[in-house]
Write a structure and sequence with these properties.
By secondary structure, the chain is α/β, with parallel strands linked by helices. The chain folds into three domains: about 1-35, no CATH class; about 40-220, Orthogonal Bundle (Arc Repressor Mutant, subunit A); about 225-345, Trna Endonuclease, Chain: A, domain 1 (3-Layer(aba) Sandwich). It has 15 helices and eight strands. It has helices at about 10-15, 40-45, 50-60, 65, 75-85, 90-100, 105-115, 125-130, 135-145, 170-180, 185-190, 195-220, 270-285, 305-310, 320-325; strands at about 150-155, 165-170, 230-235, 240-250, 255-265, 295-305, 315-320, 345. The strands form two sheets. Strands 3, 4, 5, 6, 7 and 8 form a six-stranded mixed sheet that branches. The chain has a two-stranded antiparallel ribbon with strand order 1-2. A hairpin with a 5-residue loop joins strand 4 and strand 5. The protein starts with 8 loop residues before the first helix and ends with a strand.
């Protein structure tokens, strides 16, 4: 048996699997390895809290080689300072090296990624900001999607092509690099410590990372929302947004929808009441079997005041302690034989 492994997707596809390759048509199979799952980070950093593990996740996306650059004996900020934000360090140079090795026009790809990181997510917005023709831009974005750096998303429950499609940087390493490293490159080159500046802005950045993480955990059934979803994503329409909409259509005709809000903060009972009121209102705007579906509601945050009381009232409430816990077959905090999911049927 011969096993060939490579980290450059473009090289493996063209030089190993491509038509001109001596191995073309001779492979028994192929497997595209993905990043490690979030819960695996705890094995590399056994002393870290869940909060610290999410900080790590937000800047390296669980790529094994990147994880090994951080020392489990240093705290997150010291690791970031010495192994990412220092001139000549591996993670500091990696993004530039990867883009130059993968693409013929790395400057255009850098410009596109920088534009997305700055908040331009529609095709038209990216085209206007970069000055790149939409046809050429679509090809660049296709290539970035192919290697897993960028992805496009539609609002949950919307299928097929739509003008509401938005682009995002999928890879957290590149997301962090273009958000914090590239704009501060002159200071890093001058060996000026930019860690204090990032500390002030990192929680805001992690808010979006945390949302993506929770959606991933729900898709992989790591968080129990009352049913196993067929689909899970963010939802938006005009000025309204919902962090999580998960749906399931059963063979017996029953329809289930979970609506959840994710907050990278500590929530008081007053905060929770306000969030749930808005969530109930916005969920009515989600056009998906509105007359027949069962609705479930949830809140995910760093810490939630009166969390058990919320669960007893039927709200799916998760905090950081639940993120790494083993998934259960029942609603956390509720006896297995007496589940009490909050649901509303129209």
């Amino acid at each position: 048996m011969l096993i060939l492994s490579g980290s450059s997707i473009g090289m493996m596809e063209t030089e190993v699997l491509g038509y001109k390759s001596p191995l073309y048509g001779r492979r028994s199979g192929q497997w595209r390895l993905d990043k490690l799952n979030f819960e695996h980070l705890a094995d590399f950093f056994p002393k870290y809290t869940t909060n610290e593990l999410i900080q790590v996740y937000g800047c390296m996306d669980n790529i094994p080689e990147y994880i090994l650059k951080f020392s489990p004996d240093l705290d997150f900020w010291e690791n970031l300072r010495t192994n990412f934000l220092s001139k000549g360090s591996f993670l500091y140079e990696e993004a530039d090296i990867l883009l130059r090795g993968a693409f013929r026009e790395p400057r255009n790809y850098m410009f596109i990624l920088k534009t997305i990181a700055e908040g331009s997510r529609k095709l038209s917005e990216i085209a206007n900001a970069t000055g790149i023709d939409k046809g050429a831009l679509s090809r660049y974005l296709h290539n970035l999607r192919r290697v897993g750096i960028v992805d496009s998303e539609l609002p949950a429950t919307v299928a097929g092509k739509s003008k509401r499609s938005l682009y995002k940087i999928k890879d957290n390493y590149f997301k962090f690099y273009f958000r914090f490293v590239l704009p501060n490159k002159n200071n890093i080159e001058a060996e000026i410590d930019i860690t204090p500046k990032i500390e002030k802005e990192y929680d805001q950045y992690l808010g979006f990372v945390f949302e993506e993480l929770i959606r991933d955990l729900i898709r992989r059934r790591r968080l129990n929302i009352g049913f196993s979803p067929d689909d899970c994503g963010a939802w938006w329409y005009r000025g309204d947004e919902i962090d999580i909409i998960a749906t399931r259509a059963d063979t017996d005709g029953s329809m289930q929808l979970f609506a959840g809000e994710v907050k990278w903060s500590n929530l008081s009972r007053h905060d929770v009441t306000r969030i749930l009121d808005k969530l109930h209102r916005k969920s009515d705007l989600v056009k998906w079997h509105n007359d027949t579906r069962h609705e479930y509601y949830g809140i995910i945050a760093k810490r939630i005041e009166d969390q058990e009381a919320l669960r007893s009232g039927g709200v799916y409430a998760f905090d950081l302690e639940d993120i790494l816990s083993r998934p259960t077959s029942h609603y956390p905090g509720t006896p297995l034989d007496h589940p009490k999911p909050f649901r509303r049927q129209h």
